[in-house]
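Changelog entry

Holo records now carry the ligand SMILES as an explicit input line rather than a separate metadata file. Below, a converted record for magnesium ion, shown in the new format.
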Amino acid sequence: MYNIDNWKHIFKLDPAKELSDEIIGAVCESGTDAILVGGTDNITLDGVLHLLSAVRKYTVPVILEISNMESITPGFDYYFVPMVLNSKEKKWSMDIQHEAIMEYGNMINWQEVFAEGYCIMNEESKVFQWTDCKLPTQDEVIAYAQLAENLLHLPFFYLEYSGTYGDEQLVRRVSQSLNQTKLIYGGGITNKEQAEKMAEYADIIVVGNALYDNPKEALKTVQAVKK
Ligand SMILES: CC(C)=CCC/C(C)=C/CC/C(C)=C/CC/C(C)=C/CC/C(C)=C/CC/C(C)=C/CC/C(C)=C/COP(=O)(O)OP(=O)(O)O
Ligand SMILES: O=P(O)(O)OC[C@@H](O)CO
Ligand SMILES: [Mg+2]
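Structure line, unchanged by the conversion:
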């Protein structure tokens, strides 16, 4: 339906946080390639449906990045399924996904579903703690990327620095280690210079928190990566 291969920029909106209709409108009409709906905690079905109805007034593609079983709902263009590769517990890389397929298996349109191999790099972030992650060395990150591409054949490898700006040279190394699997970078992008830098290496950059802190600057990240 949409050409995901050409996407470069995504805004992540959190159903547990407030944004005015005016800012939601500006985000949806910014030229971003897609809106990703997701977050770590307090993600409820009500919150997801409320945000979905606000962004559905616009033509931009909308993706649910599934955080938990309770907030899964039809109505999105795509479903991104996180698999946390550097979690110490198999629950977050395999079991919860298995459970969801047991529950929703016959309702799933697999053409709309994309797995994301997550590697979470910010020890202070909620999602790192929530999913009981272990901080990998740089070589271990490269090995996770290779595992995602060559063993699991995942469409996306997501280098996640949630809330903090990451290591540009590591993003470069990861991008060099991937061929088919697309590299998503997210974390701490607050301005167009950072967006431009990370987009040199990552196939897709994700901007989240900055929309809530300084939407005017966050909106400028779109054109920065589309030059
Ligand atoms: C009815 C219908 C449409 C059915 C189809 C449903 C469907 C498409 C099913 C697919 C099958 C499937 C395998 C589903 C998986 C379900 C599931 C419960 C997955 C959980 C994934 C997971 C590991 C969650 C825990 C970690 C997490 C929340 C990851 C998301 C990524 C994230 C939030 C990163 C950090 O974001 P950030 O914005 O930085 O967070 P905060 O701002 O909140 O700190
Ligand atoms: O909120 P920020 O730090 O921009 O991170 C974006 C995204 O990678 C979160 O999953
Ligand atoms: Mg967030």
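Spot-checked after migration. Residues 12, 160, 162-163, 186-189, 206-210 surround SN-glycerol-1-phosphate (ligand 2) (CB under 6 Å). The first helix runs from residue 21 to 28.
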